[in-house]
Design goal:
about 400 residues, alpha+beta, elongated
Length: about 400
């Protein structure tokens, strides 16, 4: 983030003053590192202590300043270089982290050896409004005891797991992902052999737990992403292929589909396995039904360009034509968990609709070989389903 230099200054005592623009229209004053980096807010003609983290990551603001002599960079220079380096991965609660470290040697030691644990501790102390005495008592305990007090987990393996997590932005979403994954021992223990655990891999597993223990997770973790949402969105097609393969497996008599998929070392290998199963399914004339098997009536009618797929044979024909695995969805359609349609124009495509309560929603929309439809086709499909709403 950038702080407008016209809104910042250093006073003669070396304190950093920040004028918050509209709509906040306030002023903050940061004390020097040597005095604990206290923060005060200007109110009713007086400086009063600010008990809440102001949410302004000054370390990042300083790095974004092109000029070395700006007030924020001169102020940050007063923080020891080692502390700046250790605290820089954290945007959320950064000021609190620096304050704890400046005023307590035990916090500084924890920052040096278990920074993610310190981040969790600060978050809990802030949410529960701990007193300084309460936090200091916990800081003097062993790391395993600190983690137990925060999460109920007493495990050296969990402490080591936390230490191996690397962050992207250090924002509140990443902190939330860490907290959630700690509540799932089977998931975080599956990563115990990883020397480094990118935080986006945690977000991917929370959204797609079926990938837990899979070899291809390594490839996913090695990707470069801007934030957690970017990583989860990138993995959505991979997870969709995985689920499709699991839908097909029972019809092919494959009992160990998740184990077979988990052995694929790359996304490409998993996609090839999926495609082999899809070809087998689409080539078997009697794999779905031995005779015409009609599906339940679809929730919304078709039109001139979009037709409902009404039988298992029709669904298998759609899969063969479109080089897709939709034939594996027969049981889902029969049980009214989803409904499938073929689009004839503007492009030839297959549409999956699911009901969210009483509202029909498009959940998958693919051209042949799972290619993405163009804008005109998307407009036509969503106008069709929206009219039904």
């Amino acid at each position: 983030m950038r702080l407008d230099a016209s809104l910042t200054q250093l006073d003669p005592a070396g304190r950093f003053l920040l004028h918050l623009p509209s709509p906040l229209n306030g002023r903050l004053r940061y004390g020097a590192w040597e005095t604990g980096l206290s923060v005060q807010r200007w109110m009713d003609g007086h400086w009063i202590p600010e008990s809440l983290d102001p949410g302004i990551p000054l370390l990042h603001a300083a790095n974004d300043e092109p000029e070395a002599a700006t007030p924020v960079r001169r102020f940050i220079a007063g923080i020891p270089a080692k502390i700046r380096r250790l605290a820089s991965p954290y945007r959320h609660l950064q000021t609190s982290l620096l304050q704890w470290t400046a005023s307590d040697d035990a916090a500084a030691e924890l920052l040096g050896h278990a920074p993610n644990l310190l981040w969790l501790l600060i978050s809990t102390a802030t949410e529960q409004e701990w007193t300084v005495q309460e936090r200091n008592q916990l800081l003097t305990r062993r790391r395993i005891a600190i983690l137990e007090a925060l999460t109920g987990i007493r495990s050296e393996a969990a402490v080591k797991f936390l230490n191996r997590i690397t962050l992207l932005e250090g924002d509140v979403n990443e902190l939330s992902a860490i907290k959630q994954i700690l509540d799932q021992p089977a998931v975080w223990r599956s990563l115990s052999a990883w020397a480094s655990i990118p935080v986006h891999s945690l977000a991917v597993l929370l959204r797609n737990p079926e990938l837990c223990g899979s070899r291809l997770l390594r490839q996913i973790a090695a990707g470069e992403y801007r934030n957690l949402s970017d990583a989860v969105k990138h993995v959505e097609p991979v997870a969709a292929l995985w689920r499709d393969a699991c839908y097909m497996a029972p019809m092919l008599g494959i009992a160990d589909a998740p184990q077979a998929l988990a052995q694929c070392a790359t996304v490409e290998a998993m996609a090839r396995l999926h495609d082999r199963w899809m070809d087998r399914l689409n080539r078997r004339a009697h794999v779905i039904t031995d005779g015409r098997d009609f599906f339940p009536p679809p929730p919304i009618p078709g039109n001139d360009a979009i037709h409902p797929i009404l039988s298992a044979e029709d669904l298998r024909a759609e899969g063969r034509l479109m080089k897709q695995c939709v034939a594996g969805y027969a049981r889902l359609v029969s049980s009214r968990r989803c409904y499938l349609y073929r689009m004839l124009s503007p492009q030839r495509a297959t549409i999956e609709v699911r009901m969210q309560g009483s509202v029909p929603v498009i959940t998958q929309f693919k051209l042949a070989r799972n290619e993405e439809p163009n804008a005109a086709s998307k407009v036509a499909a969503y106008e069709w389903v929206n009219r039904a709403k």
